[in-house]
Amino acid sequence: MAKITVIGSSSMDLVVTAQKRPNKGETILGESFKTVPGGKGANQAVAAARFGAKVHMIGCVGDDSFGKTILDNFNKNGVITTYVEPVTHCETGTAHITLAEGDNSIIVVKGANDHVTPKLVEKALGVIRDSDIVLIQQEIPEETVEYVSKICKEYKVPLLLNPAPARRLKEEVIENATYITPNEHEATLLFQNEDLHTVLRRYPNKLFITEGKNGVRYYDGKEEVLVPTFQVDVVDTTGAGDTFNAAFAVALAEGQNIKDSIRFANRAASLSVTKFGAQGGMPTREEVERSL
Ligand code: RIB
């Protein structure tokens, strides 16, 4: 069983669906409103657990009802929460999501996720050292991402950095990470004014640019490869990237080669968009394997 540690955000997603997005200064009527567990870190932890990994989550929730719901959801999905700390006098992170015109727009209020500090991570060093792979994203403080990248390098534990949402990365963090998985928009921000094909060649088998319904692009040391994804009827794309990252991490941790790991992850992500909610459509391992 692959041992995975996820260090990241846990949020409550407040999702409104509407025919269109309101313009500046405009009020429109929506169609529905739902509250579902989300946050990039939590989504990746839940997905990895559904793919059969033993998953430790390192994160924070607030001392409110959202925090309790998120903890219950981790437990329900078999994610180990020894290092998910409730923060007093602090609200749980929230993501304010509009689903309209076939895509989502998201505003994240970090709340307790800002308390996912190096100090919290220090408490879990034993678990990190014992992991087959560590997954991290960027809805937590920058200094934590930098700290974790150093620790993973020191412990020789592979680190998968999903640089979402985008912010510039120090060269040292890029060097320390084993795998980096931006989408096209994030890659453009990360490597400003650079041609992405040239950037891919600089990071063979390390940089994986996810291109939505096109698939995933990387450089394998000899040539640029595009691993196509699977075409499906899309209901909600929220959490597709998280499903991809978790599945990719689990497959790599189990010793699958890069191309097969991407194929597995592409399939998982394509299934995830066929249902509502970041975690609502995340498939189990059996569902992915059956559909492959
Ligand atoms: O990646 C999807 C996630 O991003 C949502 O669940 C939301 O919480 C936002 O952080």
TrEMBL record:
Residues that bind K(+): D236, T238, S272, K275, G277
Positions contributing to ATP binding: N183, T210, E211, G212, K213, N214, G215, G241, D242, N266
One GO CC annotation: cytosol
Cofactor annotation remark: Requires a divalent cation, most likely magnesium in vivo, as an electrophilic catalyst to aid phosphoryl group transfer. It is the chelate of the metal and the nucleotide that is the actual substrate.
GO biological process, one term: D-ribose catabolic process
Domain Carbohydrate kinase PfkB: 1-284
Entry function: Catalyzes the phosphorylation of ribose at O-5 in a reaction requiring ATP and magnesium. The resulting D-ribose-5-phosphate can then be used either for sythesis of nucleotides, histidine, and tryptophan, or as a component of the pentose phosphate pathway.
Family statement drawn from the similarity comment of this UniProt entry: Belongs to the carbohydrate kinase pfkB family.
Name used for this protein in its record: Ribokinase
Organism for this UniProt entry: Neobacillus thermocopriae
GN (gene name): rbsK
